[in-house]
Each structure stands twice: as structure tokens, then as C-alpha cells.
Specification:
transmembrane helix; transmembrane; mainly alpha; UCP010219; membrane; 11 helices
């Protein structure tokens, strides 16, 4: 068949193909379409996406973030014990006010220190808000244990939301993993094994949060403010960290096994 003698519809298709190719070249869409070796090479050269455990650590502020979030509580406990009946013997409300002032000052100092060093202050601001609410409740009631009430209620609330997500078959831990370790993709719904893993891991978090909040709530009802502070610092964070570590391990185990099975197939 000589040039120009092609059927009309074939010639029309060739024109469309050429126009499409010109548009792709003009707008440099090969990277999006994955049509060139250069695009594939670029994807291969990209820095690996951080693991879930690394992302979680970043969200919490790492070890430093955990320490900084505990300092205001530590200041409150120490001042309330030292200035109260245990050591100095100040009147209950006076000791409480000093403890509140120390906690707020510690939170503000952490935020100021980060600002001076031009570091992110997200964690410091979040911590200051929680400290401020707790300090207000304790100041209004005159009971030191009320300083911890917002954190207790928040933890119970988190457990309730996680439990509901399991019942409606939308496990929140799956969404967290998708955002933190799967480049924002939520394609785990089509993976039955991952879906089941996220379901029971979310229940693990419900238990973990409930235990933390439950112990503190009992102490709050008993009016054991100092014991509450000790539990908050020495028990709550280790439980939290252990649950995070277990979650990262469980997900890594499933994804690694599935990757190995896919490569062997």
C-alpha cells in the first residue's frame, strides 16, 4: 500500500497518535505516564520512603519529644510533693499553685528553647495546650489530681474511636500505615491478610490505651495525685512505646512475607 492510500480511519488514527505524542513531549508528561526509561530510572533513584517506625518516631518527636512532653508533668509532681505536706509543708492550694506554675513554665521554656534554635514547635504547642487545660481544672477545683484529667479523658476517647473503627471495618491503624509508610496509598483494603492484621492491631491499641487510661482513672478517683504523676511518667510511656514497636514489627512481618511470596511466585 502506497503512502496516502491508507484507509481514511487508519490515517486519522495515525494523526491522533502523532498529536498525542507531541502533547506528551511538549508538556513533559513521560514521567507521569512512565513511558520512558528516564522516568523509571528516576523512580529507582528516589530516596526510599521512611519506614513506619521512623515515621511514627518523627510524629512523636523521637526520644527528645517524649522527654520534653514528660518534663512539665515531672515538674508538677516534684513541686507538688516537695512543697506540700511531704517536705516543706505548705498549704495544699499554695503548693498546688506553685506546681501548676512550674508545669506551665516548663512547657513555655521548651517552646521558647525550640524557637530560639529555630526548630519545629508543634510538639511543644500541643504539650502546652494540654498542660494549660489540666492546670486550669486543677486551679479551679483545688485538687492536684484534676491536672491529669484531660489526658485521661483524651486517652479513653482515642480508645473509643479505634474500637468503633474496628466495628465498621475501617481500622484506623491501617489508615495510619497508609499515610506514614505507604506513600498515602490506602490499597490495603484489597489485601485480606493486611486488612485482618490492621483489624487486630487496632484492637491491640484499644487495649493498650484502655489500660493506660484505666489505671490513671482509678488513681484519679482515689485522689492520688502524686501516684498519678508517677504512673504517667514511668508506666504510660513505656506501654505506649512497646505498643508502637509491636505494631511496626507485626506489619513489617506481614509485608515482608508477602513480598517474599510474590518474588517466589
Amino acid at each position: 500500500m502506497t503512502p496516502g492510500s491508507e484507509p481514511r480511519h487508519a490515517a486519522h488514527e495515525n494523526v491522533e497518535e502523532r498529536l498525542a505524542e507531541e502533547v506528551v513531549e511538549e508538556l513533559n508528561l513521560h514521567e507521569v505516564l512512565g513511558a520512558t526509561p528516564d522516568a523509571k530510572k528516576k523512580d529507582e533513584d528516589e530516596e526510599p520512603f521512611p519506614s513506619m517506625s521512623e515515621q511514627i518516631s518523627e510524629q512523636l518527636g523521637g526520644v527528645r519529644g517524649l522527654i520534653e512532653s514528660s518534663l512539665p508533668v515531672f515538674a508538677f509532681v516534684i513541686l507538688n510533693v516537695v512543697l506540700g505536706d511531704a517536705v516543706v509543708g505548705l498549704e495544699k492550694r499554695t503548693a498546688l499553685y506553685w506546681a501548676i506554675g512550674g508545669a506551665v513554665f516548663a512547657a513555655l521554656a521548651i517552646g521558647a528553647f525550640r524557637l530560639i534554635r529555630k526548630e519545629p514547635v508543634r510538639h511543644a504547642v500541643n504539650g502546652l495546650f494540654g498542660i494549660a487545660v489540666g492546670a486550669f481544672l486543677a486551679y479551679r477545683s483545688g485538687n492536684a489530681e484534676d491536672f491529669y484529667l484531660p489526658g485521661i479523658l483524651l486517652t479513653f476517647g482515642q480508645a473509643a474511636v479505634l474500637l468503633i473503627s474496628v466495628f465498621v471495618r475501617k481500622p484506623i491503624i491501617g489508615y495510619v500505615w497508609g499515610v506514614m509508610a505507604n506513600k498515602g496509598q490506602q490499597n490495603w483494603f484489597g489485601n485480606e491478610r493486611l486488612f485482618k492484621t490492621f483489624q487486630w492491631l487496632t484492637l491491640v491499641w484499644v487495649v493498650s490505651l484502655s489500660v493506660r487510661a484505666g489505671i490513671q482513672f482509678v488513681l484519679w478517683q482515689m485522689g492520688e495525685a502524686n501516684a498519678l504523676g508517677i504512673v504517667r511518667i514511668l508506666i504510660s510511656w513505656p506501654i505506649y512505646a512497646a505498643t508502637f514497636a509491636f505494631t511496626a514489627w507485626a506489619i513489617h512481618r506481614v509485608t515482608s512475607e508477602q513480598k517474599t511470596e510474590a518474588e517466589a511466585a
